[in-house]
Design a protein that fits this description.
The structure is a single chain. By secondary structure, the chain is mainly β. It is built from two helices and twelve strands. It starts with a strand and ends in a 7-residue tail after the last strand.
């Protein structure tokens, strides 16, 4: 399991006083409760303390302490923001962190290998799991109870029912 969880990506700057627009990869309403995030600079994970949070359309606008100039933050466009797992929100039953699902082995109810979960597509209705088989072919599985029978984070295995029309 990952020690850090991605909460957003810096899309661009906002104004000239060091604010940034962030595309959230978690519930946007979560940001006012965060004290800090780690910025993945590509070389290191730099801890930034959050001074102010605003919302604009589907984006979060963050102001970090001690960053007061556009020139100090502009170089981080496209960089990811992370939080420690212990700072993450508690999950409801049948909710999982995407970081815990990626790379998981996917099998049918009889134990036949389907492939490896490579990506999660977040849609309005339900998530869709992208599973890649041994030949590199992708299979899209809806994250619904009729299809996803069990997710075992500890064993790193997802058991699925391949509904008619999916294969």
């Amino acid at each position: 399991m990952e020690d850090l969880l991605k909460v957003g990506v810096i899309t661009t700057t906002h104004g000239v006083r060091g604010e940034v627009k962030v595309y959230p990869t978690t519930d946007a309403e979560r940001f006012p409760d965060l004290e800090y995030v780690f910025l993945d600079t590509g070389r290191e994970k730099k801890q930034l303390y959050i001074q102010n949070v605003k919302f604009f359309k589907n984006l979060v606008i963050l102001k970090f302490k001690d960053i007061d100039n556009i020139n100090d933050i502009e170089k981080y466009k496209g960089k990811e923001l992370w939080i420690p797992r212990e700072e993450a929100q508690d999950l409801e039953e049948d909710e999982y962190y995407i970081a815990d699902l990626i790379g998981m082995k996917v099998v049918t109810e009889d134990g036949t290998s389907v492939g490896i979960l490579k990506d999660v597509i977040e849609t309005g209705a339900n998530d869709v799991y992208v599973v890649q088989d041994a030949q590199g072919k992708e299979l899209l599985l809806p994250a619904i109870h009729q299809c996803i029978l069990d997710v075992d984070i500890e064993k790193d295995v997802m058991t699925v029912h391949l509904m008619k029309g999916l294969v």
